[in-house]
Structures are given as C-alpha cells and as structure tokens.
Amino acid sequence: MTSSDLLLYCMAKRGAEQSVHSDWKATQIKVADVLFAMVKEVEDRPAVSLKTSPELADLLRQQHSDVRPSRHLNKAHWSTVYLDGTLPDSQIYYLVDASYQQALGNVSEDARKQLSR
Known about the structure:
The protein is an alpha+beta fold. The protein has one domain: Aspartate Aminotransferase, domain 1, CATH 3.90.1150. 37% of the residues lie in helices and 31% in strands. The chain has helices at residues 3-11, 54-63, 89-105, 109-115; strands at residues 16-21, 26-31, 34-42, 45-51, 67-69, 78-82. The chain has a six-stranded antiparallel sheet with strand order 1-2-3-4-6-5. The model has no long low-confidence stretch (mean pLDDT 93). It comes from Pseudocitrobacter cyperus. It holds the Pfam family YjbR. Keywords: DNA-binding.
C-alpha cells in the first residue's frame, strides 16, 4: 500500500479534512477537527498513525513488528503502522475504519448531525 492509496481511502470518509503538520512533516486527517489518521514517512518508510483501544494496540504490536507505538502521540492509544510491511492492506483499512469511528465518538452531537446530511 502507498501513502497515496491510504490518503484516498481516508479522504473518502464523510467529513474528512486534510491538513499538514509542518513540525512533524505529516498529513493529518481529521473529522470535525478530531484526528483519526496521520500519514508520514518514518525511517524513510511510508506509515500511518491510527488510534485503537490500548488492548488492540498491545496485541498488534506483539503480533506485528511493523506496528509500533506512535512517537508524537499517546502511545497507549496510537500506533504507527508501516504501509510497506507485513500487515495486510485489508487489516490497515480495518484499522482506519476503527480509528475513524473512535474519532466520530469524540465529535459533538451537532457536528455528527451535520455529517449525516
């Protein structure tokens, strides 16, 4: 999977907005100003940081060497996944979907109503 493929998938989510975090040289994807994905190069490899439950984050890190705690985000919840690694694309898409759903849970009710229109 490429960074472009992942960005296209993220931006297809209802209400997704893209911005650049210049300090981290990363593309942030948010819904109603709540971050759900951050795409960047890590160690010269394409990667994405995604939010999960701490339990899932631990499990993924134990099972896949290409899933690591995110450097600049809460390490209990945010994992960096290398896009060119051993994790199947389908699992990366699943993790994007789960991160998006968690972000929606942190969006105000009014904003969620706007997104459903």
